[in-house]
Design goal:
CATH superfamily of the largest domain in chain A: Zn peptidases
Number of domains of chain A: 2
CATH class of the largest domain in chain A: Alpha Beta
Oligomer: homodimer
Order of helices and strands of chain A: HHHEEEHEHHHEHEEEHEEEHEEHEHEH
Helix content of chain A: 25-40%
Strand content of chain A: 15-25%
Number of helices of chain A: 13
């Protein structure tokens, strides 16, 4: 590789500008982004992204679940493209970087290669995966999961949001139910750039996280059925209070995660009382839980201990508790050769780095089940993510995109 | 009093028919009633009630907060009327008897006196008080509270429901903002018939509860501000989880009520996570609490211990907890002469009875602060109320209405 190429750097200001220009689609008053998947705001950013890809000379196509692909030809079109990208949807009160850095970082890699007139041997394909966040439709990362065959496309299209709108209807409403069959766009490998969403890189003063593993995930839908009755005239010992039951389950879950930690986290993220009233004892509550570990044995222990605790609490409070495991994703172990490639790129560029486990789930974890995949992390401020206060520096974002670019160059090869 | 009058009985089948006829306004699939105050369903039952009052020869007028009054003339119109009645609104998933028995029981008393051709010395006025339940607009019993001067009418008219609709707008939307100034309709005394909403009469096999006191009430609006962050990548010890904080407060409240009981109950009835998502640690929760005792010293102890517990939990979890006492109603001690009158009527009719404390708040508790008031309770099945399963027998409802009628006859006097 020539010295000009080995020294090639992405355009930090252009990447930073793209991140902040698209942050206006769903911008919140507190500086974050609310861009739920397949919403009107998501359509706005998708339209922007499509134009940017076309302007960069990419061949854009959209698959039946709305995932967007932009192909840059290589010299040898018999080779599969190297895939890079992430997602552009956000949490209900999310930040400007989660997913967005990886997608616009991929775009920036293409723009930089174009400017430098570099042709790669294998093609490169950038991707924006539909519904990574999972906050409007469950499960999260549904499009990449369908891509790898974990769900059928029909199943995913029929999933409903809280208002009863299906994925199919949402795709049609913004004009992003594409013509390409899911899975048609193949990759030789996939690299995803992302903010860490945790506190480790920042605490250790490292610029690049070379992600070698990802936590497995357990998602539960739960329901408690107690008994609604009058808050003034029902003696305490006769109550079958759904909210007190929920409270005990939430605290039991925390205790289990602390006991099995540090390689375990668990969260009750949603809880909705049915027909709430301030002078009625809550009779029914629906809730969700999210539990993670990068160790499959710990995941099994969480499931076992959680079910035992819920059963004991239900019996004590004379209420009915049901726990449905709606999603179980095993821990991810990224492809060793790709992880090495990321590490080599970081070393060659002189960035401080360390191997790291991803606390969050990512599309790359799904893709890793059928192709070599890996990830590049950069620090985020105070480890905060899924929050309007999510922040990262321009220097770190650029460093991540540089590592992404040089990993891609190593994998795709430069046409001589 | 003549033997014909002392033996007079209300028409049990007619009362039962009225209860079940009006239950269609807001009927739920499970046999309950959803008739939130000032809703279209409330308008339907109000229209029915107005016509029934007019058919019974009553002079109907509506005050500026929508409370409805039906006046039956007495021989001596210089005397203030004896008031009877209750309310026709229900909880979001309420029953067919709470409030309704007392209002339609009052109507049945008038119909029976009409049929028997009995003129009373003092007039009788039946009432349907607006928003007793408080589940759409806070506080509960707002119309009778404004009637006795606890709130200004302007204040109550400006209260908003969860959708931002004011009481004034809701009254106008169903045409029940009446011309009568609140407080114009005076009473010499007020008797309210109601289901017990608790398990005591049924458990002891008593037909009539002679209500001599009512619990005081503390209503709190609470807010917890923790920190939203990623459920997968935020280590357990670094979390500031609003839902775990809520859980500890809910369980602390239960513990306080149990410790100070049996003359104390406490309930967290509402809790809403802001921007909930299954993979985001809850950052903010609003909640409400309802605490009651018939002993003012116990009410003070609940307030003190609750605030101490909330402060300790907030400090431990590094979150902010605010508790606003939005309503404090002192315990009620009903007028001893009126309580005796109810007891005498129950005895004369041969019904088994006992003195009892009301666990729930009632409009009669408000009225008791400016005039002699009392209440008559009848059993309800399993003590269940504020629930679609709320039930009572025709025989017990009729017994309650008979006690109401004979108490009224004793207070109003029969014209000779």
């Amino acid at each position: 590789m020539s010295r000009a190429i080995s020294n090639l750097q992405i355009d930090s200001a252009r990447l930073w500008g793209a991140i902040h220009e698209t942050a206006k689609f769903g911008a919140t008053a507190k500086g974050g982004v609310r861009r739920l998947t397949l919403s009107q705001e998501d359509k706005q950013v998708r339209d922007w992204f499509r134009r940017a890809c076309e302007d960069a000379g990419l061949e854009v196509h959209v698959d039946a679940l709305g995932s967007m692909f932009g192909l840059r030809k290589g010299r040898d079109m018999s080779k599969l493209p190297v895939g890079i990208g992430s997602h552009l949807d956000t949490q209900p009160t999310g930040g400007k970087y989660d997913g967005i850095l990886g997608t616009l970082g991929a775009l920036e890699v293409i723009r930089t290669l174009n400017d430098a007139g570099i042709e790669t041997d294998a093609p490169i394909c950038i991707a924006n995966w539909t519904n990574e966040e999972g906050s409007r439709f469950a499960p999260a990362m549904m499009a990449s999961a369908a891509y790898v065959g974990d769900f059928t496309v029909e199943d995913i299209l029929s999933r409903k949001d809280a208002d009863g709108v299906t994925v199919a209807e949402a795709l049609d409403s913004i004009g992003y139910r594409g013509a390409t069959k899911v899975g048609t766009q193949k990759f030789s490998s996939f690299i995803e750039l992302h903010i860490e969403q945790g506190p480790i890189l920042e605490a250790e003063g490292k610029t690049i996280g070379v992600v070698d593993s990802g936590q497995g995930v357990l998602w539960y839908d739960g329901k408690i059925i107690g008994f609604e009755s009058h808050a003034g005239s029902t003696p305490m010992p006769l109550r079958r209070d759904a909210l007190l039951t929920l409270s005990e389950i939430a605290l039991a879950l925390e205790k289990i995660a602390l006991k099995l930690g540090p390689n375990a986290v668990a969260t009750m993220g949603e809880a909705v009382i049915k027909n709430p009233s301030r002078n009625v004892i809550p009779g029914e509550i629906g809730f969700t839980m999210d539990c993670r570990s990068s160790d499959a044995a710990i995941m099994d222990a969480i499931d076992r201990e959680l079910r035992a605790a819920a059963a004991e609490i239900a019996a004590k409070r004379k209420v009915e508790v049901t726990l449905d495991l709606v999603w179980r994703k095993p821990p991810t172990h990224f492809d060793p050769k790709l992880v090495d490639a990321v590490e080599n790129a970081a070393s060659a560029l002189g960035y401080s780095h360390r191997r790291i486990t991803s606390g969050a789930g990512h599309d790359a974890c799904n893709l890793n089940t059928i192709m070599p995949a890996a990830m590049v992390f950069v620090p985020c401020k105070d480890g905060i993510s899924h929050n309007e206060l999510e922040d990262a520096t321009q220097v770190d974002c650029a460093a991540g995109a540089n590592v992404l670019m040089h990993t891609v160059l190593a994998l795709a090869g430069v046409a001589s």
